[in-house]
Design goal:
By secondary structure, the protein is of the alpha/beta class. 48% of the residues lie in helices and 13% in strands. The protein is built from 8 helices and 8 strands.
Length: 216
């Protein structure tokens, strides 16, 4: 589940489908059938897990779309086949995403590659904002603010356009985020699933913002 900029892994399934063997004759056909059955069973297992885990979000109206990614033809077979509930299939976003990695690394790769599909999603916005902040820091043009007191002052002046806050339960940072939202600032709460989150935490004390205009 992608919540804001956070990727939450609901369940991780492991499956192994061997490649084709070149034995010839009936042995080859028997092995091919076994491989096809293993492949089919794994797709069914993934579909059943998706139905169990995601349909509750559909029923409450909280699921906005479904990204499907994977290697080769597997993702297309999965979407085209009768594996997912029709309500989930209606939410599948296209195009399907080619993914080389597995696990959480694969999920991050899929989300980043789906930029056109998720252009309004916070995960993509956070990464773009970080690049903009780095650009302004390099130029030293006064359009970046950090330090709790400096950020608070800029917020009260209505100068903070966007704010990245490291989400680790720190009451001061949570209060800063809430205050910023009151002044119309776009607030992005980030955790360790965002590659640059540690940079925000260690270098800037957990919060950094982009300004609408320079302040003195």
């Amino acid at each position: 589940i992608l919540r804001g900029s956070r990727i939450e892994v609901l369940e991780e399934l492991e499956g192994f489908v061997p490649g084709k063997h070149m034995m010839g004759g009936q042995s080859q056909r028997r092995i091919d059938r076994i491989i096809e059955e293993m492949y089919e069973n794994f797709l069914k297992e993934v579909g059943e897990a998706a139905n169990t885990l995601l349909l509750p979000y559909v029923e409450t109206g909280k699921l906005k779309g479904v990204l499907v990614g994977g290697p080769g033809y597997a993702k297309k077979d999965f979407v085209d086949g009768d594996y997912m509930d029709y309500r989930l299939k209606k939410l599948v976003l296209t195009p399907l995403i080619d993914v080389a990695y597995q696990g959480e690394a694969g999920l991050r790769e899929m989300v980043l590659k789906a930029e056109d599909v998720l252009k309004n999603h916070k995960y993509i916005e956070v990464n773009k904002l970080i690049e903009e902040i780095k650009f302004h820091l390099a130029k030293d043009d006064g359009l970046v603010v950090y330090g709790l007191e400096e950020i608070k002052r800029a917020i009260e002046m209505g100068a903070v356009d966007s704010l990245i806050v490291y989400d680790d339960g720190d009451p001061k940072l949570e209060g800063l985020a809430q205050e910023a939202e009151k002044f119309g600032t776009k607030v992005f709460l980030v955790g360790d699933e965002v590659p640059e989150a540690e940079w925000v935490k260690k270098t800037f004390g957990g919060a950094i913002g982009k300004l609408r205009f320079r302040i003195s």
